[in-house]
Design a protein that fits this description.
Layout (H helix, E strand, L loop, with lengths): L14 E5 L5 E4 L7 E4 L3 H13 L4 E5 L5 H10 L3 E5 L13 H13 L11 H33 L4 H4 L6 H11 L5 H5 L10 H7 L6 H38 L26 H8 L13 H10 L1 H4 L6 H7 L7 E3 L2 E4 L8 H14 L5 H13 L1 H21 L13 H17 L4 H30 L1
Helix pairs in contact: 4-9, 4-11, 6-9, 10-11, 11-14, 13-16, 14-16, 15-16
């Protein structure tokens, strides 16, 4: 037994490992000293690297997902029909040796040959293009929000308390007033005339809040931030147009696009940062093959756009079960079991954009009333606390999303939830029926109140009788 050699079977034949760097890549096709070569990062270097692999009959390659340096190399290898495993760096850092680039690439090659490296999830090309545009759009929205905060700061320094009299300084009233201030108009009465009719404050109150000190340095800084804000708005509009074009091209390229239309979602309103160039209610319904994601409570237009851009219509099918999908999102607990006992069940650290979108949807569910998902959230909140309840609700939303998209089934709630506008419409219909039968609503209210009082009186009478009997 002491002389027996244990060998592991080779799973991936003709495998290579690449240590990706910012200025050079190290390629290992074996474990010998002559099996490692170094290449640059220019286009001709990547082509030479690919030809070197093809010459040595390499069919599969493992590379680490190091920053953004792997993307051009990944594209070049895929275009030459080489199977590429994009691997998380945490699975390649168990080597108990001196760390060098040569040893790293040989260690990656050894692990990949033995089949010990799982590949990362990557969407298809059309979804990746949409993801690039949507992530760029999110960055523009974040930059616009930062500019809005700086505008509000300079308005306070100028003592223009626009933040008190309007709900949003970048709304219709706020932007018109800021535009006039940047043009040099500092008369409070004239500025107050730009009040939108929906503004709750009167012109007199607006004029009181727009009496400032008019310092030149603050005015100049406010003008710069206002111009930047307008530029970001134009950039956002151009990005929305490009996203709409990309979605139209994808839908036109498919032959199985459904002609049916989903139900209208009047209760799910668009905010100022929502995409305006496409009707996501219709486009998402066609994009996912007749599955209406907006039927799920808490799922907004922004959440649907995140699902479309991060995983795409075919991406969810690459997860065998909903548990695999929620585990990839880092929404499922990572159970660690030793000796038959669970010693840890914490949710793994880390976030991606889709996880954040589901958590935001869970926050909106926490504010809903009389919804089955809200009841689930309150039940989990009572047991585990609000933080874990948000994570559990987000995981439930992800599970529902995986099931209705992969199985092509509509969302069916255990109880029908009525939003505020739907409740109001129902009340109007009930009032019309009452008026049709000639019944006085005041009379009904009086009868209902009398019945409640009679019930309370009988309950109290029964309680007093029981108390007398016990005495």
């Amino acid at each position: 037994m002491s002389n027996e050699i244990l060998q592991m079977p080779i799973i991936n034949q003709n495998a290579a490992g690449i240590d990706v760097g910012s200025k050079e890549h190290f390629v290992a096709i074996g474990q010998g000293k002559d099996h490692v070569r170094r290449f640059g990062v220019y286009t001709q270097d990547l082509k030479a690297l690919t030809q070197y692999l093809i010459k040595n009959k390499v069919t599969t390659v493992a590379i680490e997902s190091t920053g953004d340096y792997w993307q051009n190399l990944y594209t070049e290898l895929i275009n030459n029909d080489i199977d590429v495993y994009l691997v998380n760096g945490k699975y390649t850092k168990t080597m108990n040796k001196k760390k060098t680039d040569v040893i790293d690439c040989q260690w990656i090659q050894k692990l990949h040959s033995l089949g010990l490296l799982p590949r990362c999830f990557l969407p298809d090309e059309s979804t990746e293009k949409l993801r690039t545009l949507c992530r760029h759009r999110s960055n523009l929205i974040a930059a616009k929000a930062s500019t809005s905060k700086r505008m509000q700061k300079y308005l306070k320094l100028l003592n223009y308390r626009l933040d008190i009299v309007v709900r949003d300084i970048t709304g219709l009233t706020g932007l018109k007033i800021i535009s006039e201030i940047c043009k040099g108009n500092t008369n409070p009465q004239e500025l107050a005339k730009h009040r939108h009719y929906n503004c709750r404050k009167s012109e007199e109150e607006l004029a009181k809040a727009l009496v400032g000190n008019n310092r030149e340095d603050y005015l100049f800084s406010l003008e710069q931030e206002y111009l930047r804000h307008q530029f970001l708005i134009s950039q956002l509009e151009d990005c929305d147009i490009r996203i709409a074009q990309l979605l139209n091209v994808y839908l036109q390229s498919r032959d199985d696009v459904t002609d049916e239309l989903p139900s209208e979602k009047s209760h799910k309103r668009l905010n100022k940062n929502s995409i305006k160039t496409v009707d996501l209610n219709i486009v998402a319904y066609q994009y996912f093959g007749g599955v209406d994601l907006l039927d799920i409570p808490g799922i907004s237009h922004g959440t649907v756009l995140s699902i479309m851009s991060e995983v795409g219509p075919e991406g969810l099918g690459r997860f065998s079960t909903a548990k695999h999908f929620t585990s990839w999102l880092r929404l499922a607990p990572n159970n660690k079991i030793s000796g038959g006992k669970t010693i840890s069940s914490k949710v793994p650290k880390g976030s991606n954009r889709l996880k954040i979108a589901f958590r935001n949807a869970a926050f909106s569910i926490a504010r809903l009333k009389d919804s089955p998902l809200n009841k689930f959230y309150r039940r989990m909140s009572f047991k585990k606390g609000t933080t874990k309840a948000i994570t559990a609700t987000a995981r439930k939303l992800a599970t529902i999303t995986w099931n209705i998209i992969t199985k092509k089934v509509p969302y069916k709630s255990q109880e029908k939830y009525l939003f505020l506008d739907q409740k109001r419409k129902k009340i109007v219909r009930i009032r019309k029926k009452i008026a049709k039968f000639g019944i006085d609503p005041q009379r009904l209210r009086h009868l209902h109140k009398t019945r409640i009082q009679d019930g309370v009186r009988q309950k109290n009478l029964g309680f007093s009788t029981a108390w007398v009997n016990v005495s």
